[in-house]
Amino acid sequence: MSATDPSVTASYKNGIFGISSSRDQAKIVIIPVPWEVTTSYGSGAALGPECVWKASPQVDLFDLEVGNSYQRGYHLLEIPRAIQELNDVLKPKALKVREELEETGGLSPAAKKSQAEINSGCAKMTDWVYMQAQEILKRGQIPAVLGGDHSSPEGNMRAVCEHYKGAVGILHFDAHADLRYQYQGFERSHASIMNNVMRASWKPEKLVQVGIRDFSEDEYQLISTTDAIETYFDANMKRSLFEGESWSSVCKRIVNGLPKQVYVSFDIDGLSPEFCPHTGTPVPGGLGFDQALYLLRTLVESGRKIVGFDLNEVAPGPEGDEWDGNVGARLLYKLCGWAVTSSNI
Question: CB neighbours (10 Å) of residue 208?
Fold first, then answer.
């Protein structure tokens, strides 16, 4: 890694967080995925990688909890223009499919053709991420995804789970359970990623979800009948806190359900909307920023190792408001720092 003055705000053009770090030397390699084809409400997640990247130099490099972890190297790959272009082609087609489905309850032959094209394109994106993550793991580095909507990191999860032969748990921060089956007919919908993951041949040992507060009855039934899924619903967590349980105690219970190797999937709408007002599907409630960071700290201090992660659903404001990007960059920095720290324990 090139010399970096931690006391000076550098240009994002130097690299993520203003750090000039080569791909070969970096401990963490971040895959940007500008993708939001199947989003069903707000938009802007495809701009998330660039939004976070440009805001990232505002983060002071020295951190009270993770120290100078950045010196191990964080490298952001180039934003893939081919994936961006495919997103831009398929997103309006997906919108038309959703509108027809909502208006008529069914799909015309033309809409079914578009639906098949969208499913094929989503699979192409997922395969691309998978191949990128495989290469990163082969080099002994930690793969991360910066999305994009929540469908974007499936390939990263697959690569990590395969690399560690399924001995991985997923810690999933989200407002939504994301356990719907082929939501709106899209096989790799942002609302279906955890359903896809838990049905895959390479599925993780455990899925532990935190902050969930918007879900269907079918999702609730799946959670209730699947031993490998443990969900900490936001309402239940808040009730425990209101009745006197400490957040430290809640975090320890969450972490105790995970194996030693953990993949962290962080949908930013798991936070309270004040921290992500422009995310695609904001939901009242959720975690405070500091609560989320405390849970990550508890995870690492328990001796568990973060072997991969993603941050998704960050979206810039319509007037160029950088608040979402600023929060996303700080969260990404903590994820990187704790991942490096956990690898040293």
Answer: 22
Residue 3 above 70 pLDDT?
A: no
Cβ within 8 Å of residue 139, ≥6 positions away: 24, 29
pLDDT higher than threshold 50 for residue 333: yes
Question: For residue 161, is it within any domain?
Answer: yes
- Paired residues of 144 in beta bridges: 30, 309
Domain assignment of residue 1, yes or no:
no
Please indicate, yes or no, if residue 23 is contained in any of the structural domains.
yes
Q: Is position 253 within any domain? A: yes
H-helix or E-strand containing 48? helix 48-55
pTM above 0.85?
Answer: yes
Mean of the pLDDT values across residues 57-72? 95
Sorted by sequence, the CB contacts under 8 Å of residue 153 that are 6+ apart come out as 33, 129, 145, 147, 193, 265, 310, 312
Domain total in the chain: 1
Q: Which of 228, 234, 169, 163 is nearest to 204 (CA)?
A: 169
Which of 121, 119, 146 minimizes the C-alpha distance to 132? 146
Contact predicate 247/290, CB 8 Å:
no
Q: By the 8 A CB rule, do 265 and 309 touch?
A: yes
CATH number at residue 232: 3.40.800.10
Give the separation between CA 96 and CA 117, rounded to whole angstroms. Answer: 13
Range of the domain at 70: 12-344
**Vertex 331: Cα angle to 325 and 129 (nearest 5):** 80
Question: Which two structure tokens, joined as six digits, stand for 136?
Answer: 């990163």
Contacts of 322 (CB under 8 A, 6+ apart): 51, 54, 55, 316
**Choice among 82-91, 252-261, 313-322 with the minimum mean pLDDT:** 313-322
Q: Is the pLDDT of residue 153 over 50?
A: yes
